[in-house]
Write a structure and sequence with these properties.
heterodimer; A: about 450 residues; alpha/beta; Fumarate Reductase Iron-sulfur Protein, Chain B, domain 2; FAD/NAD(P)-binding domain; 3 domains; 5-stranded parallel sheet; 17 helices; 19 strands; B: 8-stranded parallel β-barrel; 4-stranded antiparallel sheet; 12 helices; 22 strands; about 20% strand
């Protein structure tokens, strides 16, 4: 496809105010009480239910659904929070179609699983509307734990440690707590500033303080906090977005998708956020989908996601792919970028791609190329971990190596969430990491003499 | 060609579906709508003595039991008999019968247990040229406090006495409507037989409290902080009604009396079941009150389709056909051995059969096989109880299979093809030698 490269068309305010409001409203309207009863009634209350096994946090799903059905939504929420204090966010962002709902026996029976995620949201919304978190804090111990990172892993860990009476200080590099819940998730999945409400909910247990604007390796060192605290939990997340490694990457309009999503989440006025007329997203994960869909919702005319492998290899689930496609995103499979081409005056103008084929699992270009006009290019080909700048912590495949209790090579340091090796890059997995680590830390603190 | 025309105690109707005496038959407007919708007949809502009309409560009259998605499983009511003037009802009955001569029109009656009261009302009803009367000995609330309704139906001597008066003082056929709020339905039915009733109809509603408002601590329905029991009806009462119909139909002393079946009939299948157990026709109320009169359309179509597929040309071909198969427990064949079987292709692995059997019954279903989630019946433990079939959410996934040969692995006894029941069983101290 030949392309006469046009001048850059990045602008804001493509849409009317009400269109922004509609585009960025709740992806799924919350279930009404009657809808929740009807849906809850579809649950078969399976014995040793497959959904529970599939949930990284092991929520007793049949029990919480039955509690909705018996008119006990508060009890239902408590069942959820017992295993997952961020059950509210997980209800919104979990890829349930690849977790609990994928193994629901109703999926096997009729291809229509019980809407577990939406029922979880019904229960947790009901509870969080006018209740603080439900757990009582144990008598204060004299132990202090440092948690680095106020994302899902750190908050989960801090909450459970606080429940055991330990004092927790969270160090957070950003201005706001919440991590990816605050900065990384698509806006339409977590409306009404839910991430901050949820942080408040978690902190309401008491015994947790947050020091914001404190970045590990810059504002403090691991050694310092190890000296000041009885134990440390690292929930650092990923530090940096991978580069394409192509010429033209410095052109204006070539944007880090994670950063853009973060800007979008923090924007007070979406109509002031610039987006290109022609947007190209390079990558095939959830970040790529979030960037592509939100570009469309901001008014971009042509949004194309290009993924270097086939549909089945894509990290974004079928559901996410459909979400993108129904929002008007075009997905091109099996093509990789070969060069970023300048349009006018240092701006990106187009991207040249080459089709790929798999040969014994190895990806190779076919030699056939095509061009896509681009006013904006989003890089969404994954992130990598950036540590504390020292080599005290042992890594594995570029991330922190931990045992099954999420303990690192250092006796008093645990880690969880996206920063650990083998992590699933899921909010719910991060919550579980934090929870498991907190249990281990509690055991450690109890057994520690002196 | 299937023919569902009905003749019940000489009363003809184009189909066996009558509306029971209840709010849907309280006045000409409703009854005419019902006839237009296709109902074969009605029993006009109960008339009382001439005089100042009754009054009803002005708060809720119904309390409900909902299933999933607010499906009405049953409701109760505390409404009394008609609260309209006798004269108005009689005038409308006469007009409707004149306008709809092919439909059955029976009038329900309830007056005090005094012969003259019955003589008076019977004379006035006869003038309407209605097809018959039904004696309301069933209403369990309100009227029973005044010595009528179920207060009569609970005393067989009163049933017989009032029935006898009616047979003496009118040429119209007499149906006696029975209350289920008794211990053994055969006694009131026998009283009706002894009083020369032409038929019995049953069941009337069941004494009930549908729920308790836990905020107000009051039973439902609640009237200004208090509630009284109401009469329960709808799909939930069908099993109770079926049994009572069958008890009358198979009891030698009452088996000859025609039965009009009532109790939770919602579909053609429900109707066919009542008729198979001996009901000559059926009366419907809750289904109409839940869905409107249109429900009769599939009752008619469905009954015809089923009859055609089953080779029945007329209603009489299947009425009572199931009665000989209703037995006492002691005559059930103890040599009939069944085992549950799970169709692994249909199994969705919910595990409900397993946990029901494991926790509450015979530990006859596996949980895993080779470390995998796998549910399979252990024939050496299975007593054939059917609980797993009952709780399985998948149609035909679990079935009961008869063993016709070999050895029952549970008892290690050879399958005996001969019929043998408890009366001759060696463990029965009162056995009769065969």
């Amino acid at each position: 496809m030949a392309s006469d490269i046009k001048s850059s068309e990045i602008a804001s305010g493509w849409l009317k105010a009400e269109e922004y409001a509609a585009n960025f409203s709740d992806l799924h309207a919350p279930l009404s009480t009657h809808e929740a009863y009807v849906e809850a009634d579809r649950c078969y209350f399976c014995y040793d239910a497959p959904c529970v096994t599939a949930c990284p946090t092991g929520i007793d799903i049949p029990k919480f659904i039955r509690q909705i059905q018996t008119g006990n939504p508060l009890g239902s929420a408590k069942t959820i929070f017992e295993q997952n204090i961020l059950g509210g966010m997980c209800a919104r962002v979990c890829p349930t179609e690849t977790l609990c709902e994928e193994v629901c026996v109703r999926e096997e029976a009729e291809g229509k699983p019980v809407k577990i995620g939406q029922l979880q949201r019904y229960a947790t919304d009901h509870y969080m509307r006018d209740h603080d978190q439900p757990f009582a804090r144990a008598e204060p111990t004299s132990k202090k734990v440092a948690v680095v990172g106020a994302g899902p892993a750190g908050l989960s860990c801090a909450h459970r440690l606080a429940s055991y009476g330990h004092e927790v200080v969270i160090f957070e590099a950003a201005d706001k707590p919440g991590g990816l819940s605050e900065y990384g998730i698509a806006a339409y999945k977590t409306v009404d500033d839910f991430a901050q409400s949820e942080v408040g909910f978690v902190l309401s247990i008491g015994g947790i303080s947050i020091e914001k604007g404190k970045k590990l390796g810059i504002d403090f060192s691991l050694d310092e906090i190890r000296a000041r605290f009885d134990a440390v939990f690292l929930g650092l997340g990923m530090g940096s977005v991978n580069n394409l490694g192509l010429p033209g990457e410095k052109l204006s309009g070539v944007v880090d998708a994670v950063e853009y999503i973060s800007d979008l989440r923090q924007a007070d006025d979406l109509s002031a956020l610039p987006v290109g007329r022609n947007v190209v997203v390079i990558g095939g994960g959830m970040t790529a989908v979030d960037a592509a869909v939100q570009s469309r919702l901001l008014g971009a005319e042509n949004v194309t996601m290009v993924y270097r492998r086939g549909k089945d290899a894509m990290n974004a689930s079928d559901y996410e792919q459909q979400l993108a496609q129904t929002r008007g995103v075009k997905i091109i499979f099996s093509a990789q970028p070969v060069q970023l081409i300048e349009g006018d005056a240092g701006n990106i103008g187009a991207v040249e791609f080459e089709y790929t084929s798999q040969d014994n699992g190895k990806l190779a270009g076919t030699g056939e190329t095509f061009m896509l006009d681009a006013d904006m290019v989003f890089k969404a080909i994954g992130q990598h971990f950036v540590g504390d700048g020292t080599d005290a912590i042992a890594l594995k495949a570029g991330r922190i190596e931990v045992d099954e209790n999420r303990r690192s090579n250092l006796e008093d340091v645990w880690a969880g969430g996206d920063c650990i090796a083998g992590g699933e890059d899921l909010t719910v997995a991060a919550v579980e990491d934090g929870k498991v680590a907190a249990e281990a830390i509690n055991q450690y603190l109890k057994s520690e003499r002196g | 060609m299937v023919d569902i025309r009905s003749e019940f105690i000489g009363i003809k109707s184009p189909n066996p579906f009558w509306l029971a005496s209840a709010p849907p038959t309280d006045k000409a407007y409703n009854v005419v709508r019902a006839f237009k919708a296709g109902w074969g007949g009605v029993v006009w809502k109960t008339l009382g003595e001439d005089g100042p009309p009754l009054v009803n409560v002005n708060g809720p009259r119904y309390g409900v039991v909902h299933g999933p998605d607010r499906r009405v499983l049953g409701f109760n009511n505390i409404e009394l008999i008609t609260d309209r003037p006798l004269e108005v009802n009689l005038r409308e009955i006469k007009q409707v019968k004149r306008d709809w001569p092919d439909r059955a029109l029976v009038v329900s009656l309830m007056v005090p247990c005094e012969e003259q009261a019955w003589i008076d009302i019977l004379a006035r009803v006869e003038e309407t040229e209605a097809d018959g009367i039904e004696l309301n000995f069933g209403c369990p609330h309100g009227m029973s406090e005044r010595g009528m309704g179920s207060a009569v139906g609970q005393v067989p001597e009163y049933i017989e006495m009032v029935t006898r008066w009616c047979k003496m003082h009118t040429r119209m056929p007499v149906i006696v409507k029975l209350t289920p709020n008794i211990t053994d339905i055969r006694f009131p039915a026998l009283a009706a037989v002894n009083g020369n009733a032409d038929a019995v109809s049953l069941i009337n509603t069941i004494n009930s409290i549908t729920s308790v408002d836990l905020d107000l601590m009051t039973p439902e329905p609640t009237i200004d902080g208090k509630g009284s029991h109401g009469g329960f009806c709808g799909p939930a009462v069908k099993p109770i009604a079926l049994n009572m119909v069958a008890e009358i139909a198979r009891n030698p002393e009452t088996s000859a009396i025609p039965i009009s079946g009532i109790g939770g009939i919602t579909t053609w299948r429900d109707a066919a079941e009542f008729m198979a157990l001996g009901a000559g026709n059926v009366q419907v109320c809750t289904a109409a009150m839940t869905y409107g009169f249109k429900v009769v359309e599939d009752m008619i179509d469905g009954l015809k389709d089923w009859m055609e597929q089953s080779g029945y040309d007329r209603l009489d071909d299947f009425i009572g056909r199931a009665v000989p198969n209703v037995s006492d427990w002691q005559y059930l064949n103890l040599n009939y051995i069944t085992k549950a079987k799970i169709d692994q292709d249909l199994c969705i692995k919910c595990g409900r059969c397993f946990i029901a059997c494991e926790d509450t019954s015979h530990q006859a279903i596996t949980e895993t096989k080779g470390g995998e989630r796998h549910f399979e019946v252990l024939d050496e433990e299975c007593v054939g109880c059917n609980l797993c079939v009952t709780v399985c959410p998948v149609e035909n996934c679990l079935t009961m299979e008869q063993m016709t040969s070999g050895v029952d692995p549970r008892t290690d006894e050879a399958i005996n093809p001969e019929y043998a029941n408890w009366t001759t069983h060696p463990n029965n101290p009162a056995r009769i030698e065969s």
